[in-house]
Amino acid sequence: MKNKIFTLIIIAFIINGCDFSSERKQKNNKSNNYKKDTIMIFSHKILAIEKKVVDLTSPSDLFMFQDFIKIYEKPNLYKANALEFISQRETTEQQKTITLYSMQNLNIKDYLDIVRTLYNLYLKNEINLNLLERSLAYPFNQNYLIIKNFDNSDVRQLLNQIRNTEEVSNKFKLSIDNILSGKTWKKIKKFKENSGH
Question: What are the structural domain ranges in the chain?
Fold first, then answer.
């Protein structure tokens, strides 16, 4: 009798264990599907923005489009999608640039993840140097996130890492030196004061 009860308990446990396992698989599938859906929604937004803006002769034109503003105002909601989108080989340079611009309202810690991703893409020859430079020194929102945080240890570590890369041009290395020394931020602050900003 005891053996029968014990056997029934084991069978019930196995059945429930299988149920939990299939339940976990369903949750994982839902999570993966959600991730795919959100990256698709994000990529569609960037493609729609690109279609409207045509080219980026004047990046500030991006603020004419609600899709861009929604991402720019709450970039932390889209950061994971942005990282995945800019890492895809089929994403064009202009789409990556729009994505970069949409992320320039992030805090410094999160923005560094964007720059690191671009740096790794540059090392793999998947983006040109211009896009990496733009991520460091040419913000279109006048926020100068990297430049004004030149004394942040994580910023300095990444800038030094980029600077010590053989493939980086001497001109870009000099630009990084000026950021690291604080000269660039000093010049920007002086210009802002003189122009009344």
Answer: 35-194
